[in-house]
Records
---
Amino acid sequence: MILEVKNLKKVYGDKTVVNIENIQIEQGETVGLVGNNGAGKTTFFRMLLDLIRPTEGEIISKNENVSQGDNWKSYTASFLDEGFLIDYLTPEEYFTFIGSLNNLSIADVSAYLTQYGEFFNNEILNSGKYIRDFSKGNQVKVGIAAALMQKPEILILDEPFANLDPTTQIRLKNLLKAQTGSMTTFISSHDLNHVTDVCNRIILVEKGKVIKDFKTDENTLKELESYFSA
Ligand SMILES: Nc1ncnc2c1ncn2[C@@H]1O[C@H](COP(=O)(O)OP(=O)(O)OP(=O)(O)O)[C@@H](O)[C@H]1O
């Protein structure tokens, strides 16, 4: 087991927005987190990354409580939103910076980026533009590529498909599928099709609680569609 969530609660005012008794994640699992707006997905991810503190309970990453240590930071990469980027850098400068934090040389970073030609659709590199001047979808591509560049053991992506064009969504699915088994991945998504395609386990949350937690099979998409059509 690489991650465990124990009696996790986040309360704002009189509202409990996350209330998860237990989730255990095995190494190599690709877990999709689905649930309607306000279900608590982003709040959960923010606690997983120690960006906010739980009201109660804990998240254990390889035997370490993420809010009490920082070993987990060396093998965890994430992209939740544009706040993870540095607006006044070009993508190349940003990749070099993230690379330097992970002991990658400029040459390593350039070599890594050559695989991303298709994903970037020739719009990211050598443009001379700052990240702040890119479209939202292209900013997301920068953030996801920077997270993958770290070759993390744990990858966390919040709604990665949301701002991407259909072609790039499919390319992203292929990138994620290529890593299946070697990386433990947590992806939240409103795209039931993509999330069941990429993930081998789905956790369905409603009002902060886990309603279903199951392995994906050929019936999963139908089950999810019927749940959400109610
Ligand atoms: N800082 C905060 N103060 C008060 N309430 C908050 C705060 N952050 C989140 N919430 C509330 O917590 C609930 C869960 O929000 P969250 O963003 O985690 O949901 P989500 O599942 O990611 O939704 P979406 O699919 O819309 O992105 C919402 O009701 C939200 O209003």
---
Amino acid sequence: MNQGGFLNITSEIGKLKAVLLHRPGRELERLTPQYLHELLFDDIPWLKQMKKEHDLFAEAMKSRGTTVYYYEELLEEVLVNREIRQSFIGDIVYNTNIANLELERLIEEFLLSKTPKEVVEIAIAGLHKNDLPEVERELHLVDYIKERHPFYINPLPNLYFTRDPGTVIANGLSINKMKTPARDRETMFLKYIYKHHPTFKGSNTPLWYDYEESHSLEGGDILVLSDKVVAIGCSERTSARGIEVISQRILENTNIEKVLAIEIPFTRAYMHLDTVFTMVDRDKFTIYPGVESHVRAYELTRGKSTPKVKPMDTLEGALKSALKLPAVKLIQSGGGDEITAAREQWNDSTNTLAIAPGVVVTYNRNEASNETLRREGVEVIEIEGSELVRGRGGPRCMSMPLVREDL
Ligand SMILES: NC(=[NH2+])NCCC[C@H](N)C(=O)O
């Protein structure tokens, strides 16, 4: 069924051929202690160092044969077309909640006077109130009341976690519905790329989910385990209904036969399934031992209009049965020590990115977890992440695989 289009993901571990990243930019320099929580950060990273770390992350993939695409480049290419740029600017302004038509028009005019590159930059880094040239205008009530908020267009500091707004499943794309307002606008970028970029558009690239739908679904929860099985975390960010809706669509339109819905505790430390559980080889997974006993798995198969559900006894059993494997290995992160495991999980030890079967990229700081993976025969490529980690995401969160070789 996977013929035609550019996108192809039939596993978590097939050789990674193309990936979408976002190099952290000025949006990170707009974080202040006051808005950290709202913007889903716990700390303020140092941008210069962050960029270096991110470039080395990209390099680690490139040197192994992965083509790296960047959000800002693709968007800029799309926005060279004036009509598309106008529509994009209209959408951005519409999504800002400025609630003042005159001001909206001024911002629109301001953006229309910018080059495609500048528009992309503002769309991601936001528009500070001081950056809009002063014009005489009558102040409305909303101007007074909202005055303390520093931005007309909010910055998107989480965009470097490209995993979350979009997910390729089989030959199609899911443009996800983000749970929080802080990340809502990220998904719109993907829609423009999908609709207008020559590499991505194509009548044969199905859309499995759209950000305009009402139930939240984030990419950190979606793991394409094989050409027949997808796992989706039910979490703080991804709703049960969102899982049902996308599952029925992929069960009807692809070779996928089963979706494993995996329920994890709803808490900030494990906001997505991939913060506690990732696939590292054909029959190997890494898991944070602190959640193992709280995880519940359900097997979904195609139903009439919504999937049939079968609760499973254990995660291990569910994986074995769905993947038709005689055994699976759940490798516990943290090297068997409870305290180390919890500390390293906070720093994304279980958020591994497989770039080939049994080959993963991880942060070097998670020494015990990396050592455990190696002992289990996994090749571990370590990257520096002291600044990147401050946004609470690791190599898997920072990447959106577009094309993998089939296994
Ligand atoms: N796939 C992931 N685990 N992504 C992590 C995203 C972290 C980001 N600060 C957020 O809270 O949304």
---
Amino acid sequence: MTDSPTVEVHRGLAGVVADTTAISKVDPESNSLLYRGYPVQDLAATQPFEAVAHLLWHGELPTPAELAALEAQERALRPMDERTRRVIDDLPLDTHPMDVVRTAVSQLGGLDATLLRDGGVLDPELNRGRAVHLLAQLPGIVAYGQRRRRGLEPVAPRDDLDYARNFLWQTFGEVPDDVVVDAFRTSLVLYAEHSFNASTFTARVVASTLSDVYSAVTAAVGALKGPLHGGANEAVMHAFAEIGSADRAEAWLDEALAAKRKVMGFGHRVYRHGDSRVPAMKAALDALVAHYDRPDLAALYDTLESAFVARKGIYPNLDYPAGPAYHLMGFDTETFTPIFVAARVVGWTAHVAEQQAANSLIRPLSAYTGPARRDVPR
Ligand SMILES: CC(=O)SCCNC(=O)CCNC(=O)[C@H](O)C(C)(C)COP(=O)(O)OP(=O)(O)OC[C@H]1O[C@@H](n2cnc3c(N)ncnc32)[C@H](O)[C@@H]1OP(=O)(O)O
Ligand SMILES: O=C([O-])CC(=O)C(=O)O
């Protein structure tokens, strides 16, 4: 006989306010997202990604001198350690790129000698440096993950390029036109932070045990990989490939819904009337569609969106426009979620710092539903 729960259970922690945060505010009522008080679409329209990173980490947009200092620090930390290259090369070529990133991030923790020092794990100053180190290393790791699958050598970073341009340079060996750079930078700003989403909450759970920042980020990468979270941007493109063209979208959708399949890139735990970031990312996608002359892709996008909204009343999330945008830029589909990592690492590390500055171990309760007490057979 099983005890039935006598307490209210919040499955998936839906609707539960687990803590306070000063980093970002997701407001489903006004359909807005603020980073430290600033509307995200205004930041995306005006700020370099590095300035947004400074804002999320420090609470204020940088002065010109602060921005220059962060840029110099990040650029100096870009080169990949030979040992990281070896760890990546040891993985099979068909290892999923998110597993490559997770492995490399974990190794960066193992290589960080400051973690050995007494108190070094929680030192806020050291952790700020580690956050910049992770940010600086990720484009090289993500880019090499894609290049080696294509049989290509890594491209060395360039310290005359900003974060977004250098990321594209290390991936493709060239810096694309400004319209492409701008769409990419926009996506990084929009992906940088989103309060207590699953991966950020994972990072905070790990941080709350007073573990180190690399462990928190490694765990967060694992959480982001799933298709209900960051993995959806990859899944959107797989669906587009399955559908093929706009005229097949409605039939595909009807079959998917009849089979009770989730349509990736739609829906959100918090937003009910659409994702605040979609208009800015859709505008970036439109610019790419015009640049690459791909009205066919735009038609598929629009047809699937209209059909899904008409049938389910559920709107696209950020992954829906981001997936096809990355596709047009030339990224492999499996590289989309790793790009998300290279942006969200800013939010994760900001939350690790906030959690550890006023820590309380995260340890919820559960309502037991297993067998009642019984005797072990003798
Ligand atoms: C950057 C990000 O991480 S954004 C999120 C990216 N994830 C996706 O795009 C995956 C697809 N979307 C989903 O699976 C969901 O919308 C989630 C997981 C994001 C949020 O879901 P929840 O708040 O847990 O709602 P839940 O999954 O219970 O959905 C509620 C209802 O809407 C339906 N629904 C929600 N999203 C979808 C979808 N994308 N496709 C089909 N049906 C959907 C569910 O089937 C469910 O229907 P039911 O009540 O008839 O069973
Ligand atoms: O907030 C969420 O649950 C998921 C999301 O959109 C994000 O992490 O960007």
